[in-house]
Amino acid sequence: MSEKKHRVSRRQFLNYTLTGVGGFMAAGILSPMVRFALDPILKEEAGQDMVAVAQVKDITTEPQRFDFKVKVKDAWYESEEPRSAWVFKDEKGDIVALSPICKHLGCTVNWNGDKSNPNRFFCPCHYGLYEKDGTNVPNTPPPAPLDRYEYEVKDGTLYLGKAKPRGEA
Amino acid sequence: MKWTAKDVDMYQQAKEYVDTALVPCIPIGNTNMKAFAEMSEHTLFIANEVERQFKGRVMLFPPLTYVVQEQIQARVHEWTNVLKQAGFQHICFVTSHADIADESFIYVPALPLEHADEAYKQKVVRQQVEQVMDALVAKWTLKN
User: Any idea what DSSP says for residue A102?
Assistant: First the structure.
């Protein structure tokens, strides 16, 4: 009696096995698809790597220009692009790294470039001026302060990241 | 600015600020090819570097390419006219080719830097870039 009760019919047996095998196959197909769909959310923001630029002991209160190179990836084409930064320590001793790219039309600005405007950044193209902290001088062409690099100090070396408009950095 | 769709867009919006055209002149020859290739490479490198520093006032044009047997003066003249009409007040031709470089060109001698060490190379190139930049600044201040 009990033996008979536990007997699995042919129909049930086929049902169970087919559901089981089908379930595995469906999972095998779906799980990579789910992973693909979620991938953009799980991915970390592709931040630019920090690049070693200078030794902290070399940085003074006077802005100095440091040149470095960053790897730029444009689709499958990777290249190295030269960058520069004006680096100095402010009154509080904090490091400030300014991007030399003029906010007007993108020329390269120089420290003390104009003799009649000492201790300012000067853009030779259209005579734009910036104060030492990067603030644009009113009545000159630049519409905004110079960008600041994100920075990090590790073992006495200064690393620079992305240049960000002031207010964000 | 460079001769690309994106930069030309920017140029059209800021036309009154961009008054200088920079044209690298590049020779092609059927003998002594390597020397000409070196000149071309050098000229283009310097021109690119100047453009990077003076992006907002200088438009870097694609190179004027010529064969060495050619009389280039007529073409330079033609380019100058066309660019003047386009509104460029200063038109600078840069070349490393000594044979064509008269006073209307900015001459940047290509040095045999192939085997020089990296630091020396950079120094020499930077000097020449600065020399071209000074020449441009001199033109600008003369005008104002």
Answer: -
